[in-house]
Design goal:
2 copies of one chain form a homodimer. Chain A is an alpha+beta fold and about 160 residues long. The first copy, chain A, contains 6 helices and 7 strands, in the order H-H-H-H-E-E-H-H-E-E-E-E-E. At the A-B interface, helix 1, helix 2, helix 5, helix 6 and strand 3 of A face helix 1, helix 2, helix 5, helix 6 and strand 3 of B. The structure holds a DNA duplex (30 and 30 nucleotides).
Chain lengths: ~160, ~160
DNA sequence: TGAGTCAGTTCAAAAAACAAACTTGAGGCG
DNA sequence: CGCCTCAAGTTTGTTTTTTGAACTGACTCA
């Protein structure tokens, strides 16, 4: 399988990675989530090279994750905003952030970013739960089952 | 910022991406979650080139996400298994999968993979919730706040 | 007129990925 | 013994991507 054929895969993980699975895309989206919406702003925050930033933004727009909105004319300038499809990536962003906080931070290091839930006004951690029983999901209690495949394959640690 | 300096960033998203943020790593981990633990097995499932697979597995072991376990000697052969740190990536995997299911699948297409929760035995969707009020998190109700930074920046769509 | 801003594009060099063949240390077959 | 097979890589040469630096174009401001 080549990288550019990934969007044709039947697997949803592969299809998602065909959009956000490269070295820079999620960092660009992090900037957008932080409301850094303009080319120059993202370029100087991220220190990404300009050609890569331009190419990635073009792809994110064509994939329907971002949209270009003009904020002035003469000359026309635009900024990049999340579409609903892009906003739906927030659980992915929170999951990445939480893994980094819990697994990559030397003990005692304070977190650089935290999350606040506007409806309850608390600083919180994101917890993945089951849509049916509403309990938090422990890795060992989750199975990934392939449709049509014979038994079932566990999403199980060790 | 160059890619290899990413693990030095203070941001947890950047640190996480320094481990799993390239074109192949999450696909390799998908295979591991599906219990395809051996080199040949992963190589033929993924059609990844052998040098890239070898390099990624080496890095995942050195990052503490996988560990090598011998399953025979003479000649010594090993398989790759998740550590606890690796198993902790399951919310990331579920979030990626769920985004693909809901945003990338043409309407009416059945899902290739689904999730089952062993404790309640139901097929479920993963739902990200607030650790404080336990409500599901809508993208617009979540803010990312930078420590020390002046106001607060919203993790807000449009 | 000259300097500055923003959103890119162009171009050459360096790094990474690709494809195919090769290696290493076994066991099995005739 | 010589030859084939297997698993888990490594080597080699080619192609693609990324990097870094400079350049462009449409405008504003002094």
């Amino acid at each position: 399988m080549r990288w550019n054929e990934l969007d044709q895969e039947p697997c949803s993980i592969a299809r998602t990675l065909s959009v956000i699975g490269d070295r820079w895309t999620m960092l660009i989206l992090r900037e957008i989530f932080f409301r850094h919406r303009r080319f120059e702003e993202m370029q100087s925050e991220l220190n990404i090279t300009r050609p890569v930033l331009a190419q990635r933004l073009r792809k994110l727009v064509s994939d329907g994750v971002l949209r270009k909105v003009a904020y002035q004319s003469q000359p026309t300038r635009h900024e990049y905003r999340l579409t609903d499809k892009g906003a739906a990536l927030s659980p992915v962003m929170m999951a990445l952030m939480h893994w980094g906080d819990t697994q990559m931070l030397p003990a005692g290091t304070p977190r650089a970013v935290h999350l606040r839930h506007c409806t309850c006004n608390a600083q919180f951690d994101p917890v993945m739960t089951c849509s049916v029983c509403h309990e938090p999901l422990a890795p060992k209690d989750v199975r990934m089952e392939r449709r049509g495949s014979v038994p079932s394959l566990e999403l199980n640690p060790l």
